[in-house]
Amino acid sequence: MKAAILEKEGAIPEYADFPDPLPENDEQVLINVKAAAISQLDILKSGGKHYTHYPNFPIVVGLDGIGVLEDGTLVHAAGITGMMGEKALVRRNEWTVLPDHIDLAVAAGLPNALVGAGVALIERAKIQPNQTILINGATGLTGKIAVQLARYYNAKHIIGIGRNPETLASLKTLGANEVVSLNQSDDSFIGQIKEIHERTPVDIVIDYLWGHPARMILTAFQFMPYHPVKVVSVGEMAGADLKLPSAFLRSSPIELLGSGMGSFSRDQLTDYMKNILPEMFKLAANGQLTMDVETVPLKDVENSWEKQSGKALVVIM
Protein backbone atom coordinates (compact mmCIF):
# COMPACT_ATOMS: atom_id res chain seq x y z
CA MET A 1 0.00 0.00 0.00
CA LYS A 2 0.96 3.65 -0.30
CA ALA A 3 1.53 5.49 2.97
CA ALA A 4 3.28 8.36 4.76
CA ILE A 5 6.41 6.69 6.14
CA LEU A 6 8.66 8.06 8.89
CA GLU A 7 12.15 6.57 8.61
CA LYS A 8 13.56 8.09 11.81
CA GLU A 9 12.71 10.53 14.55
CA GLY A 10 13.33 14.09 13.46
CA ALA A 11 12.59 13.41 9.80
CA ILE A 12 9.54 14.29 7.70
CA PRO A 13 7.23 11.48 6.55
CA GLU A 14 7.65 10.45 2.91
CA TYR A 15 5.19 9.02 0.43
CA ALA A 16 6.26 5.44 -0.26
CA ASP A 17 5.21 1.80 -0.39
CA PHE A 18 4.71 -0.05 2.87
CA PRO A 19 3.46 -3.59 3.64
CA ASP A 20 -0.27 -3.89 4.27
CA PRO A 21 -1.01 -4.28 7.99
CA LEU A 22 -2.30 -7.72 9.00
CA PRO A 23 -4.64 -8.36 11.96
CA GLU A 24 -2.93 -10.39 14.69
CA ASN A 25 -6.14 -11.39 16.51
CA ASP A 26 -9.93 -11.04 16.39
CA GLU A 27 -9.80 -7.71 18.20
CA GLN A 28 -7.96 -6.05 15.32
CA VAL A 29 -9.92 -4.94 12.27
CA LEU A 30 -8.55 -3.85 8.90
CA ILE A 31 -10.11 -0.73 7.40
CA ASN A 32 -9.64 1.19 4.18
CA VAL A 33 -8.58 4.70 5.18
CA LYS A 34 -10.13 7.66 3.37
CA ALA A 35 -8.78 10.71 5.24
CA ALA A 36 -6.52 11.61 8.17
CA ALA A 37 -5.59 14.97 9.64
CA ILE A 38 -2.01 16.12 10.20
CA SER A 39 -2.30 17.03 13.87
CA GLN A 40 0.13 19.04 15.95
CA LEU A 41 0.82 15.86 17.91
CA ASP A 42 1.75 14.05 14.66
CA ILE A 43 4.22 16.83 13.84
CA LEU A 44 5.74 16.92 17.32
CA LYS A 45 6.11 13.13 17.53
CA SER A 46 7.71 12.80 14.12
CA GLY A 47 10.11 15.60 15.04
CA GLY A 48 11.02 13.97 18.36
CA LYS A 49 9.65 16.98 20.25
CA HIS A 50 6.83 15.31 22.16
CA TYR A 51 6.94 13.43 25.46
CA THR A 52 5.58 10.33 23.69
CA HIS A 53 7.66 8.57 21.04
CA TYR A 54 7.24 6.04 18.24
CA PRO A 55 8.36 2.53 19.28
CA ASN A 56 10.27 1.65 16.10
CA PHE A 57 11.09 2.70 12.54
CA PRO A 58 10.16 2.82 9.72
CA ILE A 59 6.56 3.45 10.70
CA VAL A 60 3.35 4.78 9.16
CA VAL A 61 2.31 8.05 10.84
CA GLY A 62 -1.18 9.28 11.65
CA LEU A 63 -2.93 8.83 14.97
CA ASP A 64 -6.53 8.68 13.81
CA GLY A 65 -8.63 9.01 10.70
CA ILE A 66 -11.73 8.21 8.70
CA GLY A 67 -12.10 4.79 7.09
CA VAL A 68 -14.51 2.25 5.68
CA LEU A 69 -15.16 -1.10 7.35
CA GLU A 70 -15.56 -4.31 5.38
CA ASP A 71 -19.36 -3.91 5.43
CA GLY A 72 -19.14 -0.38 4.00
CA THR A 73 -19.73 1.50 7.27
CA LEU A 74 -17.91 4.85 7.42
CA VAL A 75 -16.22 5.39 10.80
CA HIS A 76 -13.74 7.50 12.70
CA ALA A 77 -11.16 5.53 14.69
CA ALA A 78 -7.77 5.73 16.32
CA GLY A 79 -5.24 3.48 14.66
CA ILE A 80 -3.31 0.57 16.08
CA THR A 81 -1.14 1.19 13.04
CA GLY A 82 -0.62 4.56 11.36
CA MET A 83 -3.69 6.03 9.69
CA MET A 84 -1.91 7.90 6.91
CA GLY A 85 -1.88 4.90 4.67
CA GLU A 86 -4.36 3.28 2.37
CA LYS A 87 -5.07 0.63 5.02
CA ALA A 88 -4.81 0.49 8.81
CA LEU A 89 -5.68 -1.63 11.82
CA VAL A 90 -8.13 -0.41 14.45
CA ARG A 91 -9.58 -2.01 17.59
CA ARG A 92 -12.86 -3.83 17.07
CA ASN A 93 -15.87 -1.70 18.05
CA GLU A 94 -13.64 1.18 19.16
CA TRP A 95 -14.88 3.50 16.46
CA THR A 96 -17.54 6.12 15.89
CA VAL A 97 -20.00 5.63 13.05
CA LEU A 98 -20.29 8.85 11.05
CA PRO A 99 -23.62 10.48 10.17
CA ASP A 100 -24.78 10.70 6.57
CA HIS A 101 -23.66 13.68 4.50
CA ILE A 102 -20.76 14.73 6.75
CA ASP A 103 -17.81 16.18 4.87
CA LEU A 104 -14.94 13.64 5.11
CA ALA A 105 -12.27 16.31 5.55
CA VAL A 106 -14.21 17.98 8.36
CA ALA A 107 -14.82 14.58 9.97
CA ALA A 108 -11.07 13.86 9.85
CA GLY A 109 -10.05 17.27 11.18
CA LEU A 110 -12.56 17.64 14.00
CA PRO A 111 -11.52 14.93 16.51
CA ASN A 112 -8.05 16.33 17.19
CA ALA A 113 -9.44 19.82 17.72
CA LEU A 114 -12.24 18.41 19.84
CA VAL A 115 -9.75 16.69 22.14
CA GLY A 116 -8.01 20.04 22.57
CA ALA A 117 -11.30 21.87 23.11
CA GLY A 118 -13.96 19.40 24.24
CA VAL A 119 -11.88 17.30 26.64
CA ALA A 120 -10.45 20.50 28.14
CA LEU A 121 -13.89 22.00 28.68
CA ILE A 122 -15.84 18.88 29.64
CA GLU A 123 -13.43 16.47 31.33
CA ARG A 124 -10.89 18.86 32.84
CA ALA A 125 -12.75 22.13 33.48
CA LYS A 126 -16.14 20.44 34.11
CA ILE A 127 -18.03 23.20 32.31
CA GLN A 128 -21.49 24.02 33.65
CA PRO A 129 -24.32 26.12 32.15
CA ASN A 130 -24.24 29.88 32.79
CA GLN A 131 -20.50 30.05 33.43
CA THR A 132 -18.14 32.65 32.01
CA ILE A 133 -15.44 31.15 29.79
CA LEU A 134 -12.26 32.95 28.69
CA ILE A 135 -10.36 31.37 25.79
CA ASN A 136 -6.75 32.47 25.45
CA GLY A 137 -5.75 31.79 21.85
CA ALA A 138 -9.32 31.74 20.54
CA THR A 139 -8.24 32.76 17.02
CA GLY A 140 -6.47 29.43 16.46
CA LEU A 141 -8.09 26.39 14.91
CA THR A 142 -8.81 24.65 18.23
CA GLY A 143 -9.66 27.92 19.95
CA LYS A 144 -12.45 28.55 17.47
CA ILE A 145 -13.85 25.10 18.21
CA ALA A 146 -13.67 25.90 21.95
CA VAL A 147 -15.72 29.06 21.40
CA GLN A 148 -18.41 27.07 19.60
CA LEU A 149 -18.47 24.33 22.25
CA ALA A 150 -18.67 26.83 25.10
CA ARG A 151 -21.74 28.32 23.41
CA TYR A 152 -23.20 24.83 22.78
CA TYR A 153 -22.82 23.98 26.48
CA ASN A 154 -24.71 27.14 27.42
CA ALA A 155 -21.93 29.37 28.70
CA LYS A 156 -23.32 32.69 29.91
CA HIS A 157 -20.44 34.80 28.63
CA ILE A 158 -17.55 33.89 26.30
CA ILE A 159 -14.41 36.00 25.90
CA GLY A 160 -11.99 35.31 23.05
CA ILE A 161 -8.36 36.46 23.18
CA GLY A 162 -6.02 36.60 20.18
CA ARG A 163 -3.94 38.75 17.85
CA ASN A 164 -5.42 38.55 14.36
CA PRO A 165 -7.99 41.39 14.20
CA GLU A 166 -10.08 39.84 11.42
CA THR A 167 -10.27 36.45 13.11
CA LEU A 168 -11.00 38.10 16.45
CA ALA A 169 -13.95 39.93 14.93
CA SER A 170 -15.24 36.70 13.37
CA LEU A 171 -15.37 34.98 16.77
CA LYS A 172 -18.60 36.80 17.53
CA THR A 173 -20.28 34.91 14.70
CA LEU A 174 -19.16 31.67 16.39
CA GLY A 175 -20.58 32.59 19.78
CA ALA A 176 -18.12 34.90 21.56
CA ASN A 177 -19.71 37.79 23.44
CA GLU A 178 -16.58 39.93 23.41
CA VAL A 179 -12.98 39.78 22.29
CA VAL A 180 -9.69 41.10 23.64
CA SER A 181 -6.67 41.83 21.47
CA LEU A 182 -3.13 40.94 22.49
CA ASN A 183 -1.95 43.76 20.22
CA GLN A 184 -1.87 46.34 23.02
CA SER A 185 0.35 47.25 25.95
CA ASP A 186 0.59 44.84 28.87
CA ASP A 187 -1.01 47.36 31.22
CA SER A 188 -3.94 47.92 28.86
CA PHE A 189 -4.46 44.19 28.37
CA ILE A 190 -4.32 43.43 32.10
CA GLY A 191 -6.67 46.32 32.80
CA GLN A 192 -9.17 45.03 30.24
CA ILE A 193 -9.13 41.52 31.72
CA LYS A 194 -9.60 42.98 35.22
CA GLU A 195 -12.58 45.00 34.06
CA ILE A 196 -14.16 41.91 32.48
CA HIS A 197 -13.49 39.83 35.60
CA GLU A 198 -15.13 42.49 37.79
CA ARG A 199 -18.14 42.78 35.49
CA THR A 200 -18.70 39.08 34.74
CA PRO A 201 -16.38 36.93 36.90
CA VAL A 202 -14.47 34.34 34.87
CA ASP A 203 -15.07 30.73 35.87
CA ILE A 204 -12.86 28.91 33.36
CA VAL A 205 -9.82 29.84 31.30
CA ILE A 206 -8.94 27.54 28.40
CA ASP A 207 -5.38 28.46 27.49
CA TYR A 208 -3.71 27.59 24.19
CA LEU A 209 -0.86 30.11 24.43
CA TRP A 210 0.77 29.89 27.88
CA GLY A 211 3.91 32.03 28.20
CA HIS A 212 3.53 35.78 28.61
CA PRO A 213 -0.19 36.03 27.69
CA ALA A 214 -1.09 33.49 30.40
CA ARG A 215 1.00 35.36 32.96
CA MET A 216 -0.85 38.59 32.15
CA ILE A 217 -4.21 36.88 32.67
CA LEU A 218 -3.09 35.45 36.01
CA THR A 219 -1.80 38.89 36.98
CA ALA A 220 -5.23 40.36 36.23
CA PHE A 221 -6.86 37.84 38.58
CA GLN A 222 -4.67 38.80 41.56
CA PHE A 223 -6.25 40.53 44.54
CA MET A 224 -9.71 40.50 42.96
CA PRO A 225 -12.89 39.75 44.94
CA TYR A 226 -13.10 36.06 45.79
CA HIS A 227 -14.22 33.98 42.80
CA PRO A 228 -12.67 30.55 42.00
CA VAL A 229 -11.15 30.25 38.51
CA LYS A 230 -10.02 27.08 36.76
CA VAL A 231 -7.14 27.69 34.35
CA VAL A 232 -6.70 24.77 31.94
CA SER A 233 -3.45 24.69 29.96
CA VAL A 234 -3.84 22.99 26.57
CA GLY A 235 -1.02 24.47 24.49
CA GLU A 236 2.06 26.66 24.55
CA MET A 237 2.02 28.62 21.31
CA ALA A 238 3.40 31.70 23.08
CA GLY A 239 6.11 29.84 24.99
CA ALA A 240 6.65 26.70 27.05
CA ASP A 241 7.72 28.50 30.22
CA LEU A 242 5.90 30.80 32.59
CA LYS A 243 7.60 32.47 35.54
CA LEU A 244 4.98 32.27 38.23
CA PRO A 245 5.66 33.54 41.76
CA SER A 246 3.85 31.47 44.37
CA ALA A 247 2.06 34.63 45.51
CA PHE A 248 -0.06 34.41 42.36
CA LEU A 249 -1.69 31.27 43.72
CA ARG A 250 -1.78 32.39 47.36
CA SER A 251 -3.48 35.69 46.53
CA SER A 252 -6.17 34.29 44.22
CA PRO A 253 -8.48 31.24 44.23
CA ILE A 254 -6.89 29.89 41.03
CA GLU A 255 -6.78 26.20 40.17
CA LEU A 256 -4.17 25.28 37.53
CA LEU A 257 -4.92 22.20 35.40
CA GLY A 258 -3.50 20.64 32.27
CA SER A 259 -5.30 18.97 29.40
CA GLY A 260 -3.24 16.65 27.23
CA MET A 261 -2.23 13.03 26.79
CA GLY A 262 -1.45 11.82 30.29
CA SER A 263 -3.68 14.30 32.13
CA PHE A 264 -6.82 12.27 31.56
CA SER A 265 -7.37 8.52 31.77
CA ARG A 266 -7.99 6.16 28.89
CA ASP A 267 -11.47 5.62 30.34
CA GLN A 268 -12.16 9.35 30.22
CA LEU A 269 -10.96 9.55 26.62
CA THR A 270 -12.97 6.47 25.66
CA ASP A 271 -16.07 7.92 27.30
CA TYR A 272 -15.56 11.16 25.39
CA MET A 273 -15.13 9.34 22.09
CA LYS A 274 -18.21 7.15 22.63
CA ASN A 275 -20.62 9.63 24.17
CA ILE A 276 -19.57 13.12 23.08
CA LEU A 277 -17.84 12.71 19.71
CA PRO A 278 -20.91 11.23 17.93
CA GLU A 279 -22.90 14.28 19.03
CA MET A 280 -20.19 16.59 17.68
CA PHE A 281 -20.16 14.78 14.32
CA LYS A 282 -23.93 15.27 14.07
CA LEU A 283 -23.52 18.99 14.77
CA ALA A 284 -20.88 19.21 12.03
CA ALA A 285 -23.05 17.29 9.57
CA ASN A 286 -25.88 19.75 10.26
CA GLY A 287 -23.63 22.79 9.89
CA GLN A 288 -23.90 23.71 13.58
CA LEU A 289 -20.18 23.16 14.21
CA THR A 290 -17.81 24.58 11.64
CA MET A 291 -14.11 24.14 10.91
CA ASP A 292 -11.79 25.50 8.25
CA VAL A 293 -10.07 22.62 6.42
CA GLU A 294 -7.55 22.23 3.62
CA THR A 295 -7.04 18.91 1.86
CA VAL A 296 -3.90 17.47 0.27
CA PRO A 297 -3.43 14.15 -1.53
CA LEU A 298 -1.36 11.48 0.20
CA LYS A 299 1.38 11.77 -2.44
CA ASP A 300 1.98 15.39 -1.34
CA VAL A 301 2.31 14.63 2.38
CA GLU A 302 6.03 15.42 2.55
CA ASN A 303 5.64 18.91 1.09
CA SER A 304 2.57 19.62 3.20
CA TRP A 305 3.74 18.24 6.54
CA GLU A 306 4.73 21.50 8.21
CA LYS A 307 2.49 23.80 6.19
CA GLN A 308 0.93 26.60 8.24
CA SER A 309 -2.44 27.67 6.82
CA GLY A 310 -4.57 28.31 9.88
CA LYS A 311 -6.79 25.45 8.77
CA ALA A 312 -7.03 21.77 9.60
CA LEU A 313 -4.73 20.04 7.12
CA VAL A 314 -6.29 16.75 6.01
CA VAL A 315 -4.59 14.06 3.92
CA ILE A 316 -6.88 12.33 1.44
CA MET A 317 -5.94 8.75 0.57
Counting H and I runs of at least 4 residues, what is the number of helices? 9
Global geometry? elongated
Give the beta-strand count. Answer: 16
What about the largest sheet?
A: 7 strands, mixed
Going by CATH, the architecture of the largest domain would be Alpha-Beta Complex
CATH topology of the largest domain: Quinone Oxidoreductase, Chain A, domain 1
In the predicted model, the low-confidence regions spanning at least 5 consecutive residues are: none
- Structural category: alpha/beta
User: For the record, what CATH class of the largest domain applies?
Assistant: Alpha Beta
Task: Give the topology string: H per helix, E per strand.
Answer: EEEHEEEEEHEHEHEHEHEHEHEHE
Walk me through what this model shows:
This protein is α/β, with parallel strands linked by helices. It has two domains: 2-112 and 265-316, Quinone Oxidoreductase, Chain A, domain 1; 126-258, Rossmann fold. It contains nine helices and 16 strands. The strands form three sheets. Strands 3, 5, 6, 7, 8, 15 and 16 form a seven-stranded mixed sheet that branches. It has a six-stranded parallel sheet with strand order 11-10-9-12-13-14, with helices on both faces. Helix 6 (211-221) links the parallel strand 12 and strand 13. Helix 2 (104-124) crosses helix 3, helix 2 (104-124) crosses helix 8 and helix 5 (186-199) packs across helix 6 (211-221). The termini are close together.
